[in-house]
Structure formats: structure tokens, C-alpha cells
Amino acid sequence: MIIAIDGPAGSGKSTVAKLVAGELGFAYLDTGAMYRSVAWRALEEGLNLTDPLCVASVNRIRQIAQAEPISFGYTQGEPLPSKVFINGRDVTTQIRTPECDKAVSPVSADPEVRQALTQQQQDFGREHDTVMEGRDIGTVVFPEAELKVFLIATAKERARRRALQNAQKEGRQQADDDEIELILADILRRDAYDSSREAAPLAAASDSWELDTTDMTIEQVVAAIVAAAQERNGAVAQERSGAQAQERNGAVAQERNGAVAQERK
């Protein structure tokens, strides 16, 4: 079973997806971390990642995406990954910097980069019950996903959450208004960029469930998605059971018809 969770920057996709995967015992794949890993490698090489990208930068980031595989590390006994690697190098911390935040949009907009990473994502999803989050999981990576969720929240609320998350990482209990305003400007920039890019633009799949989390706690969001997944899983199991019964009945009928025909001969 594939659960696709999409949404704009700061909508809480990663946090929610990890918790949903933990509740259901599914594998979790952080697609954003994959694009961030490519962006980090490009930054490490000193490439110019201002938008629009120059030809030299485009060619090199495509080479990185195609030649340097991305993998995840797991702590024994934990269902969720705790490490991110690109070409065997641990970049778990490095890909979460403000510099990487800014670089990831132009990198992820390139069609050939997306194609290379989409292939890795599809290979992973075909081997596991998976919760996968990003911006085009339900529309491009797994349009056949059994459950598609599109998380939304106001830009102001998304900025507040991101600022609070950053503050707590630094041991502070709250973020100030200036921090929130800076993050709000960046979120609005990324929303416009991600929604207008040519390659796999941010958009809700026609059959996705749009879930507005502005006034919901993380626990409420997770509980709602887990309940929907369990309901969908039960429906799929029932459909399969019915199909199997129909197939068995057809086989029995065919066998009986054959026996009757033989008797008549």
C-alpha cells in the first residue's frame, strides 16, 4: 500500500508522514531529503544555484542525481530512518540549513533531476508498504497510490510552525515576529516557484483528499490519516477477497461445465 502525502512548503508533510508510518508500521521515504541531498552536493562543489540555473550548473546537478544514489540509514529497532546518505556520505544535518532551503527549489525543478530521483522513489515504493511525502507523489511518482492526501494550511500558520521548529532546535521556547516574517517571505516565494515550475508543479491530484490543518494539532492530523488508511486498506482487502471468490466461482463453474459436456459425449 502506498500513502502519498503532498503539500506546499511548511505544511508539516515530513512530521506527519513519519508519525503516520510509525502508527501503521509502514516504511517512510522522505523525498524532500533526496532533492536536498542533490542540492547540498551542488553547493559543496560551489555551483551557482541562483534561478534560473546556468547551463554548467544544470549539467552538473543532473550528473549528481543520476550517478550518486541516495539512501537512508536506520537505527536498530526503529521503523523510521535516522540518517540520509548521498553516495555513501552522511548529509543528515547538512541538508537542513537555510542555504539548502533556498537551493532546493531550482534543483528540484529540473526535469532530468526529477526523473532520476523519481525512479529511485518508485523502486522503493514497489518493495514496501510506504508513506511517501513530497509535492508530486500523488500526481507523478505514484498516481496509483491507494490513499492520496494533500495537506494545506495558511502561509502565516506554516511560517509560524517552521519558525517555532527552528527555535526549539536552538533550545528556545518560541520564535519572534521577525523570524516568522522572514520565513513567511521564503514560504511565499517557494509556493509561487513550486506551483509554476514546468516539471511536476505542485498540485493536488484530482482524487486526493485535501486536508486543511490550519486549526488542527499534529496528533489530530495523524489520527485522521491513519483512520483513512485503515479504512482504505480494509476496502482494498474486501475488493481482493471478492475478486478471488469470483475467480474461484468461475473456475468451479468452468470445471462443472466441462464435466457435463464430457458426460453428454
Report on this model:
With 265 residues, this protein is α/β, with parallel strands linked by helices. The protein has a single domain (2-233), classed as 3-Layer(aba) Sandwich (Rossmann fold). The chain is 57% helix and 14% strand. The chain has helices spanning 13-24, 31-44, 55-67, 98-108, 111-125, 137-141, 155-169, 177-196, 218-264, and strands at residues 2-6, 27-30, 70-74, 81-86, 89-90, 130-134, 147-152, 209-212. The strands form two sheets. The protein has a five-stranded parallel beta sheet, sandwiched between helices. β4 (81-86) and β5 (89-90) form a beta hairpin. α1 packs across α9, α2 crosses α3 and α7 crosses α8 (177-196).
Short overview:
The chain has 265 residues and is α/β, with parallel strands linked by helices. The chain has 9 helices and 8 strands.
Layout of SSEs?
Blueprint (H helix, E strand, L loop, with lengths): L1 E5 L6 H12 L2 E4 H14 L10 H13 L2 E5 L6 E6 L2 E2 L7 H11 L2 H15 L4 E5 L2 H5 L5 E6 L2 H15 L7 H20 L12 E4 L5 H47 L1
Helix pairs in contact: 1-9, 2-3, 2-4, 3-5, 7-8
